[in-house]
Please model this.
Amino acid sequence: GQQVMQIPQYQHVQEGEDFTTYCNSSTTLSNIQWYKQRPGGHPVFLIQLVKSGEVKKQKRLTFQFGEAKKNSSLHITATQTTDVGTYFCAGSYNFNKFYFGSGTKLNVKP
Amino acid sequence: DADVTQTPRNRITKTGKRIMLECSQTKGHDRMYWYRQDPGLGLRLIYYSFDVKDINKGEISDGYSVSRQAQAKFSLSLESAIPNQTALYFCATSLTGTALTETQYFGPGTRLLVL
Model:
């Protein structure tokens, strides 16, 4: 069935190092969203990508949508302790319901 | 963020009991969703509703039912709770879907333990 795979499951980095999480679908997505969930919190929307090859930036965060619209990545440059949390991608195939990846839990050591 | 509230925030129940989780929102969003979150599995969609008269099953609807009492209220019921329904449950809302307005706003979650 339709499914969005996300790797890695966990990532431990030293503060200042970069971090990347990847999402992949076997079939073409209509759009993909990224969410951040702080420990003990709820998912909070970060961004949505719609166009093939789209790249968006939010300060130290860079989001990419693949040319075939089957994969996406979130890259954080020079991580900070405030980046700690779980990052989820959520892909849709028809702009309606979303399929969430399993999430990447980021831990940043000061 | 949309004002999305969930009650109760925590619940302990026994196997076989019927329980209801409630979700309310004050942003006037027409779409509402119920997800469950389990460690390592992300969020899985249980049911979703695009308006009061529209209810749809998600990936894992077995053992659950929902009611959309009004645009602002969407309840999730476990008719006969079982231990593997122990999870963190989130309600979410969004505006009518176009590519630009699909942001989902999540409630704070309900932590459910079924003994």
Summary: The interface with chain B takes residues 6, 9, 30-31, 33, 35, 41-45, 48, 50, 88, 90, 92, 95-103 of chain A (CB under 8 Å). The CA atoms of residues 27 and 61 of chain A lie 26 Å apart. Chain A has a mean pLDDT of 94. Chain A is about 0% helix and 55% strand.
